[in-house]
Amino acid sequence: MTTPATVRRTTLAASVGNTVETYDYAVYGFLATVLATVFFPAASPGTALLSSFAVFGSAFLARPAGALVFGPLADRLGRRPALVASLLLMAVASTLIGVLPTTAVVGIAAPILLVLLRFAQGLAAGGEFTTAIIYVAEFAPPHRRGALSSRVQVGSLAGFLLGAVVVLSLSTALSREQMLDWGWRVPFLLALPIGVIGLYLRSRFGETPEFLATRGRPATAPSSRQWSRVFLLIGVSVLHIVGIYMVYTYVQSYLIQLRLSPATATAVIAFALLAGVFLVAAGGRAADRLGKSRALLVASVAVLVVTYPLFAVLATAPPLWLAVLCTLLLSAGPAFYSGAAPIAYVQLVPVRMRGSVVGLTYNVAVAVLGGSAVFICQALVELTGDRRSPAYLLLAAAAVSAIAALALARSREPETAPIAELTAEAGS
């Protein structure tokens, strides 16, 4: 029997591991302007920043490959082995980025090595987030699955927040020259001790009741109905992916381009992240109380209403207090949405196929949308000269996900027997 204490501990183990993953991604995003100078010193500032964002996006291209490795591993051997392996790979790759030689020392080899290590991070991330939400959801009681699954996303925002605090502290304590010389390395090196903590927590727990109850049963071949769920999962994921990476990664660089200092811009994002932690948790609870589709639809409509006016205000380079308010409001809808989305992913797919189908589907969406979101936003500004133009990407994402939320309300969850029944069958 799964006790409340076991649920709390397994939720913490899954969430902390996801914190490590997102911390590593966030640190790169927050240091984008510094890394652009370190690894692309000969380029103009705008081109160097685009190059830095392109390297950021290279990790996303690796995520489907990671899902092809870790997803089947989670379905065949168990959720826990996949979670331990993905976290170990992420921690090692991030630590190695912290000891990379710069372009000034080894020339073109430096950005090449950076791309390879970002690719390794992407492989790890391809097995991390989706396996973590599956792990938590399969331990959680039915009436709390939305709330508990959202804690994995809370762990993601905690990783963003931790990355922001670390980068902000260094930016405040060090000069620009020190940050370019050695300060940028520190956040990546911190991934090692954080990863050790996550590995310790994950190594202490076993498999989920649903996985144990269905282990050994063959996965059914995909049907037309299951393929429709795959496309529905992609539609639900669009605002989750684009919204989170836009508001918590790109907007920091956007604020710097509005003449805020890197430290101030990072502090603004840290404040939005702190509020986002509570909004994500609220989204998970809303999924349990209102239903997944209704919670997702409310958040999508809110994003459609407020996004363009908020970017229009930010584009005028407003006073700091107004920039903080706009950033907070801009992030509120995507944060709430990302709290309700995880349980929708899990419940769209049968137990024996969850690791593979949810993992690959979500990570293909991330590869297409997540890595490109920050690049597209910056490219829109460079090409049009209009600082409001990033709003169009977020508006498009919200429109797609609003339609998906309406379709989700009409869909039926896959047929699965109650856990008690499955367990009894497994033991007979």
From TrEMBL:
GO CC, any one term: plasma membrane
UniProt superkingdom: Bacteria
Signal listed as a keyword: no
Membrane topology, from the record: Multi-pass membrane protein
Compartment annotation: Cell membrane
Residue stretches making up the Major facilitator superfamily (MFS) profile domain: 10-413
Pfam families listed in its UniProt record: Sugar_tr
Record's keyword terms, sorted: Cell membrane, Membrane, Symport, Transmembrane, Transmembrane helix, Transport
Transmembrane segments: 25-43, 49-70, 82-113, 119-140, 152-170, 182-201, 230-251, 263-283, 295-314, 320-345, 357-381, 393-409
Gene3D superfamilies for this protein: MFS general substrate transporter like domains
Functional summary from the UniProt entry: May be a proton symporter involved in the uptake of osmolytes such as proline and glycine betaine.
Family in the record: Belongs to the major facilitator superfamily. Metabolite:H+ Symporter (MHS) family (TC 2.A.1.6) family.
Listed name of the protein: Putative proline/betaine transporter
Organism of this sequence: Amycolatopsis thermoflava
